[in-house]
Amino acid sequence: MAPEPGIEELLPRNTLKTRVPQETVERVTRPAPSRYRNEIAKYLVHRSQDCRLCGKCLELCPWQVHVRKPGYRYFGEPRHHLCIGPACKKTGHDCVTHCPQKALQIRENPMYPLLGDFRWSSDLILATWKMAETGEAPPPAYDYNYECGNSGGGFDRLRFKFPERPPVVLREDEIDTSLLLNKRDDGRPKLRIDVPWYGGGMSFGSVSNVTQLSKARAAVAFNTFTCTGEGGYMERMRPYDDHVITQVATGLFGVREETIQRVPIIEFKYAQGAKPGLGGHLLGDKNTVSVAKMREAVLGISLFSPFPFHSVYSIEDHAKHIEWLKHVNRRALISTKVSTPTDVDMVAVGSYSAGSHIVHLDGGYGGTGAAPDIAKKNIAMPIEYAIGKVHRFLTDEGVRDKLTLIASGGIRSAYDVAKAIALGADGVVIGTAELVALGCVRCSRCESGRGCPRGIATTDPELCRKMELDWAAQRLINLYSAWHKLLVSILQRLGLRRVSELRGRTDLMMHLDYSNDVAKTS
Amino acid sequence: MPEKYHLKTRPVPPRGPRLGKHGVVDWREDCARCHNCVKKACVYDRYRQEAEYIRNLSQVEALFFDCMGCFSCVQDCTKGLLCLSLNPVYEALGNSYWKPDIIKTTWLQAETAKIPVSGAGYRGPFSGPGFDSMWTDMSEIVRPTRDGIHGREYISTVVDLGRKPPFLAFDGRRLAAELPPLVSLPMPLILDLSSPAHTLPQLDAVLEQTAAMTDLIAIFDARRQPASEEHLRHIAFYLAPDSPPVPPAVLRKTRLVEIADSPALAQRLKAIKAIHPDIVASVRVELTPTGLPRALELAGWPEVEVLHLVADANGNEIGAQPPRFLKDMLRQVHTALVEKGIRDEITIMAGGGIALPEHLAKAIICGADLVTINLPLLIALECRLCESCEPGQPCPARLETLDPDFAVGRMTNLIAAWHDQLIEVMGAMGMREVRRLRGDVGRAMFFEQLEEETFGKLYGTRTRH
Q1: Which residues 41-80 on chain A approach chain B with CB closer than 8 angstroms?
Q2: Nearest-CA distance from B176 to chain A in Å?
Q3: Which of A156-165, A495-504, B175-184, B441-450 has the lowest mean pLDDT?
Q4: How far is CA B31 from the centre of its chain?
Q5: Looking at the DSSP assignment, which residues form a beta bridge with residue B85?
């Protein structure tokens, strides 16, 4: 992002002095294959001893499943994850049927259903991995359903009503996916991001510094933002200052005036969707030497971010908080992150009146940190309900166009981005999807012991080495790129020139559990 | 500040192998002996532990130990020899209501007394039947209309059982009439009778001791003898229609009694009150299609101080097709009593289908004062609801040979974990009194209502039920 005009006047003198040159990152997709030897596949290809090594399968398969290295006589282990399965029979490239010795078999991988859960289905995880590897949506032949999961409600039952022909024929390059974050005319910078999403707050402590830095690089590449979470501001994040949101949460871990002054957006975190009303909790095992130093805390003890801000018991108190931050950083936009209580609409309007530029609603399906199971499942309403409720109330109050409404906690794909916007959000925050792109299998062990066994949500020095920064950043850039293309395609099929035109267009969707016979518009 | 309700807990490991959800299938015969074995690198050291376990135990299920399902070994093995599978024994746990994850989480709490915690957000279905079709509220930026968020030490989970007068009358500076007896419990929970299928004589002493340890009350079949007289304060005798009378000397040492609803109810209540006027009398009403009207009728009897409404083990109406669920029946009773203007006069206990701590909070929101449980306590002892509790059939949980120390420890741990989770939920709501949560549906959000407000208005009539 180019510095806005007049940044020298806006930035405090001490921040200008300590400001470091900002990194640039190319928005280029490159192959970033899995870092694991055996990719988890939907289908398994079995070659029996009857194989006569004729190579017919090698010639037939357009997906490069079969492997025979140059100079070798025997086949290597098939690339199972590239096989499209029984669907291949319709294509004429079916190796099973055409094998002269009938030596090949394809069957569903018994492990496949174990991957994922109701929210993140196996198909969604594999499709996200493919996007992170290639920068493209998986070819239709793979038949991955990445438009929704299997939760049985909310986003998973909503579908877009794509017309046979779009009402307006648009080229891809005519479609604008950018999002204006400051809709108030208050003299603060009119920040605009190129895609209607930014990276969610994951503190150093809950995730590794490689994860944080890779998110920052992807944010730079797509001219959007990433968020530090509430764990302090790593010095290594400084070359990405212009694309960083720093979080001020109740524990105030690592929050200093100097860090607040570095960034274009400051986020007040009142609650997290995964543990609404309970505050944050970093278990002692994850409070390693580096985390303790960053958070200015004692090594190995559990760290609590209490709920709520004990200095905020009303919207007026909230306004004072915002004034404080606006005073400390005169160029920053203020985001207020809240979860989804029954009066979330009132909270949103209150935050607007207190001076927030962004209200960020966080639902319960996300989160890397430790959260009580009882809280995740039961406390506060699903994000799908909250978006519409807040959108309608802000509209009725006449302030909808002065506030940016962001939704998070359950955004898994470009389709979810579009559905959230169609329900009434301006944009979304993503987090889990990025972790899945980095190889997360959602084993939900991010919180305990040494942390994530995949090296993503951990600060254990040995586990952190499982992931290279360049690889991780490329995976995220690829994911963003695939999502961007998918979002453009959705808008193109709907005949919408700008993503902002999709906001609140519930009439462009249908719900599979309803009669869909009510003619409604936004 | 009143004394905090604090239960002494300690880790009580299971007697059998821990059952994991996943197991690793190891095709050893094709191993390349590459010396890069991923098993050494298992973050959880499960392979070493599993080997030790198998050496010590002969049970096959030990093979499916406590794999965390991270796929790391599966994906890194040089030859791709490892395969993750769903543990078939895990899948067979429980039934359609008491699902394997409920059994597993109950075991975990009974072992550790800790609140189950995990990462990566909520993984389950969007909503579901019964208690899964409601969410509890939370207080965001606290407003003056709410209690305010207090430290957890200020949250009270005390409930009073008994009849409360609608108002107090004074004669000068003194109360004009005597107050009816009340029983205070430190948390809204009572240990209920085991179902006939799960009634084991050896459980009696365990339940008595657990009730004493947790300062709660266990309902005890009067046809059997309590193990110890010193625990009578924590016992409420249940008088079935054919129960012999409890000896007056024994009855006078108890605080609560439960009587089955029967034609002789009025006489039995009178007889008991004649022996022990300060005892609180509860009437057990089964939630059959006639149960609700009967409960409403009994609520008007001045001698009935507590109504114990019992659904079947899955929380469903008994003998109805289709059955109503406990939560809906509780809302109905509560609302009817509010409309009659007598809700505050009577205490309602709800039982059947209370499987998780969230059900405790949700039942109270729907109108119960407190809940009763039996199956979760049995599951705490490693029961897996295999329903093979016939004489001569082997019990996988070996309940026929219970060590009281183990059993009381596990049950106490479970109750402590439930108490902590009730406090978590109340803390999120900004509530500091569980008594104020009763019937406060404003602290909850219901699926049907949210769906109608959000999608019904946009997309017409709901076609999937």
Answers
A1: 77
A2: 43
A3: B175-184
A4: 48
A5: B23
